[in-house]
Amino acid sequence: MTPQSTSTDSELLLAFQHGDENAFDALFGRYRTRVINIAWRILGDEDTAQDVAQKVFIKVYTAPKACRLDSAFSTWLYSVTTNACLDEIRRRKRSRSVPSQELTERIVDPAVSPQARAESEELAREVKAALASLPENQRIAIVLQRYEGLSYQQIADVMKTSAGAVDSLLFRAKHTLKTRLSLYIENDDRSAVAQIPAR
Amino acid sequence: MDCKWATRLIPAYLDGELTAENEALLTEHLSSCSSCRAEMVALKQTLAAMEACHDVAPAFTLADIKAPMAQRQIWRGWLPGFGWSSFSPRWSTALGAVFAIFVGTVGGIGLHAVDQPSRPPVASRAVSDMLSLGASDDPLTNLVAERPSASSAVPGDNGQEGRQ
Predict the structure, then answer these.
(1) Nearest to B49 among A40, A63, A185 (CB)
(2) I need a surface site. Which of A6, A61, A106, A132 has the fewest CB within 10 A?
(3) d(C-alpha B162, C-alpha A76), whole Å
(4) Quick check: B72 contacting A, CB < 8 Å?
């Protein structure tokens, strides 16, 4: 087990700020999947998300001292990522360009029937469309909370707002998603409402 | 707690973000309200459906991040207010242009000063002129001589110039 694999983000960042390239490599390995998926869920276009995610890491690589050591590296990284996504969204609006609806390759499970696979892909498309219909701030909040597991306070730190504001964003986002995805949700299980559902 | 408040708290309850007090109030309400329980089930299923949006794999590698920096001509230096910094070609070009204009301006001023014969400033020239010239050639003396005296004042003029 290499030292980098047991080091905390702060230790790796400090080492990288002092010129240790291996520390950057370790941070890159830890976060590149998270960054690309945050970008792809916010932007809805995989090619653009790949470009944005790459630019985020180039920024980290060329300006490591931009992250203060008194704040979590992940918070700063996610903040850079969401800001880069917002910049891309604004750029799209100015150029009035619409991202192409690409079909992302998925690993096909041979045990899954074609019908089930088709239903799953249709649901994935509907979820992606439902996310895209949200205002940017709600979309960022729900992506960070639902897919990255951040707490309300962590999301507030990333978005530079309050936990109460994040609670409000998430409430509105989830209400919209519930309405849009209601056709795809099995909600006639009466036994599930006989008692308080588990979390 | 009424259903409106309960509905508002359900998402935060599922996220584990409610205070202990609010959680107790919500739980009490849910124990007697089937419609709010149904609302919670619907929201849970919505959130579960979001898992259908699978992850994608990053298409870029470390080399994609580092190689462009190694190939570019990066200007590295210390700038007041910025510290040791690296700049991209665009900024390197901009900084180079600003520096070239600055050098050209300073150099141009310096060359202009070299080309002109060395002359003392006007004030010191006036003093040196006065010292080297005779009184009759002193322009200041001539001005004084040309100033009308009180005896030669125009009739009606009491000589108090500037006084009203």
Answers:
(1) A185
(2) A6
(3) 74
(4) no
What span, in angstroms and rounded, lies between the C-alpha atoms of B65 and A93?
27
> With 0-12 CB in 10 A as exposed, 13-18 as middle and 19+ as buried, what is B16?
exposed
Asked whether residue A153 is assigned to any structural domain, the reply reads yes
The size of chain B, in residues, is 164
Cα nearest neighbour of A143 on chain B:
B50
pLDDT at A78 over 70: yes
Q: For residue range A138-162, list pLDDT tens digits in order.
A: 999 999 999 999 999 999 999 999 9
* Ramachandran class of B72: left when φ > 0, alpha when ψ lies in -120 to 50, beta otherwise: beta
A103 within some domain:
no
Whether residue A67 is contained in a domain is answered as yes
The confidence score (pLDDT) of residue B1 equals: 80
Q: Do the domain assignments include residue A19?
A: yes
- The CATH number of residue A52's host domain is 1.10.1740.10
d(CA A196, CA A192): 8
